[in-house]
Structures are given as C-alpha cells and as structure tokens.
C-alpha cells in the first residue's frame, strides 16, 4: 500500500503514528488499510486507493467505535469525500480550525457512543 504525504503532513505522520495504537486490515492477498489512534483521537485512517469504496474504511471505523466511548479527528475542509464519509458514519462537525503548519482549513469532528 502506498501512502503519500507532502512536506509538513509527512512530519505530522512521522511524529504521531509512532505514538499511536495502529490496527491493520488485510484481505486474503494484501494490506488494504489501517487506522491509528492516540487515546480517543483518530490520528489516521488510510485505505489503499485501489480498495476505496469497498467498505474497508467503514469496517475499520466500526472496529474502533466498538472500543471507544467517543472519537475525535481532524480532517481538511476541502476533503469533501472524507468529510462526507465521517458525517455518514455518525460524526458531527464540532469546530472549524486553521492548521498553520499546512495552511489548510480543517474541521474538528467528533463521534459519541449513544
């Protein structure tokens, strides 16, 4: 699985991922994605591009939801596909933020077990 990140994003991933608990999902042939958590903060959810839209992201998300009372994450505002994915899966937009490291607007999103 290839994961690409630009400049400051790569720094964030290399700093956050090592201190997170990461769960990997594979099919019969290969790794298709992973989710990384730091306590109740979702640091990363990545699905290999060739497997997006096959339900793997929802499976990883539901796996984590079954182990947490609440989850928070940040997602770039311009990433409509990801924002809509999280909204469809029960997350709400809590706050609009600006990431000075990447010069990007982002949403703080949250989910709570009911």
Automatic annotation (TrEMBL):
Domain N-acetyltransferase: 1-114
EC number: 2.3.1.-
Statement: the UniProt record of this protein carries the keyword Transferase: yes
Keywords: Acyltransferase, Transferase
GO molecular function, one term: acyltransferase activity
Enzyme category, top tier: transferase
Keyword Acyltransferase: yes
Pfam families referenced in this protein's UniProt entry, alphabetically: Acetyltransf_7 (PF13508)
Membrane-spanning parts: none
Protein name (Swiss-Prot/TrEMBL): Acetyltransferase
Provenance organism: Bacillus capparidis
